[in-house]
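hey so u asked for the seq, here:
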Amino acid sequence: MEKYSGIFFSDLDGTLADKYGRISKKDLDSLKKLKKYNILSVIATGRSPFSARKIIDKKFPIDYLICSTGSITMKWPQEDIIEKFDLTSEEVAFSADIFRSYNLDFMVLHEVPENHRFDSFIFKRPHPDVVRRHKFYKGYYRVRDYNFPISRPSCQLIGIIDDNEKLLHEIAPKFKGLKVIRSTSPLDGKSLWIEIYPENVSKGNAIKSLCGSTGVDIERTGAIGNDFNDIEMLEAVRHPFVVGNAPEKLKINYSTVSKCTESGVSEAVERFISSLQEPA
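ran it, structure tokens below
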């Protein structure tokens, strides 16, 4: 096995890519620079593989792609699947019933890597963020009757609860035995999502698993994110960073670099490389 100097993980939306999916040349050059130091470069995103490919092409300077918040890890650019996880049929039916009990709009995604396909369950009128998601995934979704008894394996369920923090804290404990992740919609940048995954799914667990398979000591890892769904990733690595556009609650706990639109990833990469060169 080739010995690597370290691994650097970056979130995508709001961290490396701006709201239009654009990535600065400076940040791309910084990812390429990691290779010169024999450091593996990894994108860890909440996007599905299908959605990630809209930004990341085969020449993108990374070694691995972690998608759907850790549900699938692929070698890049080969797209060989290293690891993947899905909810069981029983877990899907259980979760759907909880969302229905609160009259929430929700979506049931297919298994990875086909999780750009999904079924939508709309209580009355579709939430504006559901409309946006339908537009983005035109041709890849079905609208089901709200009480349709969905029961099949799934990568994840997504429920939309606006910015209702009280509801988030009330509903989350009901998903016993499952992973509940709070995230901000990448479509409008403000709607609050509650995402349901298999219990062992997280960016943090994907990082630990990848360190094991590549032989890299977790002490030689760094990561950068911008939102609450990045916390487990940030907690898993030795050198965590957040961009300047992250919520204040995150900036209090992690080293803060420039905003996404000001090439904050490049700043984090430089600081990470320097940290690896410091005497033990």
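The longest strand covers residues 178-184. The chain has two domains: 6-85+201-277, 89-198.
lmk if thats what u needed
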